[in-house]
Amino acid sequence: MTPRLAVVVGPVAFAGIALLLSELRWFRRPSLTDRLRPHVPGVDPARSSRRLSTASFREVVAPLSELAGERLSAVFGVSETLERRLRRIHSPLDVTTFRTRQMGWAGAALIGGTLTAIALGCPAPLAIVVVAGAPLLAFLVLEQQVAAASLAWQRTVFLELPVIAEQLGMLMSAGWSLSAALNRIAMRGRGNCSRDLRRVVHRMHQGLGDVDALREWAALADVDALDRLVAVLALNRETADVGRLVSDEARSIRREAQRDLIEAIERRNQQVWIPVTVAALLPGVMLMGVPFVDALRLFSAP
């Protein structure tokens, strides 16, 4: 191992080994204070007096990771908060856990890029690019995964809305109340909308009104078609023929989905002609170049 590599690897390896060994009982015996803490009333038993452990390390790193992650995502133009995107896709991770994991991957990429630059003996400009680009790439990959999952969830909700709206319209036309119809669809469905509706029903059980819970879902999902559907469902207590209005809105959403599908098909049809056009132009340019080169040779001859 070269001296430069040892300077980088040594502190990192020492910190990692120290954190791992701090979790082993045979390596570090709990102090008398830690052993008596669970038996003292009014004292948090999970709190430890140990200075170096994975828990204490996480308590220090987690807020810094959350702050740094928010600043970096804002620099790259991400305006929507991470907490909202994680709630939208029903992620089991909270913001702090995700940012800590994200910064952990970025730190591992930083160490890997540094070791690679040292091992390959890269020149200074290339080494700076590798060392700075590796953690940034790791950070952006995880950020892009959440953004892609959020967009996919919104798209699936939009595609499922016509079916959900039709079911709501049929149930409400048959005499079901809005709360009962939402509960039935949430319990019997298996799609993304059904998972969102289970959250809506849970919020209703917590005391929130049915219309307010639906508006909360629409604000979180951020789908225009859902906003219009919730606006129609909000007329539940003002009109007796809301089932027909919901069915009409379902047909409108279905027509919108069909228009989006036709536009996507047309775009793909246009993309097919790009390689065909390039393949047809290249031979033509080459054939046109033959007489041009021959004319240049003719005029340049003595």
State the main characteristics.
302 residues, mainly alpha, 0% strand, 11 helices, single chain
Q: Which structural class matches the secondary elements? A: mainly alpha
Give the H and E element order. Answer: HHHHHHHHHHH
Number of strands: 0
Cα-based radius of gyration, to the nearest Å: 30 Å
The total of helices stands at 11
Helix content range of the residues, please?
over 70%
Structure write-up:
There is one protein chain. With 302 residues, the chain is mostly helical. The chain contains eleven helices and no strands. α6 crosses α7. The radius of gyration is 30 Å and the shape is flat. The model has no long low-confidence stretch (mean pLDDT 80).
Question: In brief, what are we looking at here?
Answer:
The chain is mainly alpha-helical and 302 residues long. 78% of the residues lie in helices and 0% in strands.
Helix/strand layout:
Layout: H1 3-21, H2 32-36, H3 54-75, H4 82-88, H5 95-120, H6 124-173, H7 178-188, H8 192-205, H9 210-221, H10 224-233, H11 242-300
